[in-house]
Amino acid sequence: MKKEAIKAYFMTLTRETRQSLIGELQELDGLSSSTPKCQEYRRNILDNKQGCCSHCGHTKYVKFGKDKGSQRYKCKACQRSFTEYSGTWMAGLHQKDKIDDYLQLMLEEKSLDKIKEMLSINKKTAFDWRHKILSSIEHVDKDGFTGITESDETFFLHSEKGKQKVDGKPRKRGGSSTKRGVNSDHIAVIVTQDRKHQIDLTVATAGRLKKVDIDKAIGGRISNQTILCSDSHVSYKGFAIENQIEHHPLRSDLKQRVKKGVYHIQHVNSTHHRLKKWVDNIFWGVSTKYLQQYLNWFRMKKNLKESKQLVKEFAEISVEDIGAYSRYEQLTDRYNNLLSTQN
Ligand SMILES: [Zn+2]
Q1: Residues 170, 294: one domain?
Q2: Cα(118)–Cα(105) distance, rounded to whole angstroms?
């Protein structure tokens, strides 16, 4: 085929296909116009020997040539090779030249339609990238809770937003459950925060909270330095007794809001409120399958509130996580597990 014919054929393709083809050809040829910042941050970590093998976690590895514009490394323990992308949310992405702009727009909380239009990517890509990125920040900045620590659950109605309708019964945003009381349509989210800056938001279960749900969410982060404030839910009482921590249950049935001037759960309740407003106003509700991802995002927003370089800091944190890609791949399993906890 002559060059002119290739060009003519190229112009018959859709704009989206042309864009993606250009990206792929550049990568093939090692010509990527500029290395994405996210990739650079990851390379810095690895080149400074602060990373580890994405296969076995070993910290000894050597540079092992280049691969389509990215640096390759070889692990001294398992002998397998990996690149800057391996294991991270960037693994397997096409159009990597767009990831910096994507991250910027995502953190500006632009809609998927807007991002699709601005970056000439399709909406599914914009949707997937968001959840890949949000898989990377689940376990950062999680230290112990010290001092007065408030914990309380809030509920989100089960939602299959975005999923193809199968049973023909879509529920409107902000709709109500058809059953009375707390039931399996209610997805319990536990919010826990101390009065310094530790916070945890965990999708816990479908239906009523049990002691084991609280344990899974925050059990690893409490100590004898933790003074727990919660409602008088029997699961919290059991949790506190089992872990031998000081506990101040508030009796909401008696309209007890504050004890001794300091023991209350008003900070978490205000977090519940802000979280729901954010989810409703910015995303028009989110699918239960991805709810944890948005909680991760909400937590990072709070943690990086004072940041002068939000995108850079967020990017640096996100590329540290080599468990991100597999966590993303497990989303469906986690969702099915959650629904199987229904009670
Ligand atoms: Zn290895």
Answers
A1: yes
A2: 9
pTM for this model (two decimals)? 0.85
CA distance 158 to 134: 20
Residues with CB under 5 A from ligand 1 (ion): 53, 55-56, 58, 75, 77-78
Domain membership flag for residue 333:
no
Of the chain, the end-to-end C-alpha distance in Å amounts to 64
Cβ partners under 8 Å of residue 259, min gap 6: 248, 250
pLDDT tens column, 75-119: 999 999 999 999 999 999 999 999 999 999 999 999 999 999 999
Query: How many domains is the chain built from?
Result: 2
Q: Tell me which residue range forms the domain holding 284.
A: 147-298
- C-alpha 132 – ligand 1 centre gap (Å): 23
Please tell me the distance between residue 76's alpha carbon and the centre of ligand 1 in angstroms. 7
CA 89 to CA 318: how far, in whole Å? 8
- For residues 163 and 264, membership in a common domain is answered with yes
Strand partners, 230: 249
State the burial class of residue 8 (Cβ atoms within 10 Å of its Cβ: 0-12, 13-18, 19+). exposed
Retrieve residue 221's tokens: 């982060």
Which of 106, 137, 168 delimits the end of a domain?
A: 137
Give pLDDT, residue 179. 67
What is the tens place of the pLDDT at every residue in 282-313? 999 999 999 999 999 999 999 999 999 999 99
CA of 195 to the centre of ligand 1 (A): 40
186 located within any domain: yes
Looking up tokens 């920040």 gives 137
How remote is the CA of residue 30 from the centroid of ligand 1, in Å?
26
- What is the per-residue pLDDT across 307-332, written as a single tens digit (0 to 9) for each? 999 999 999 999 999 999 999 999 99
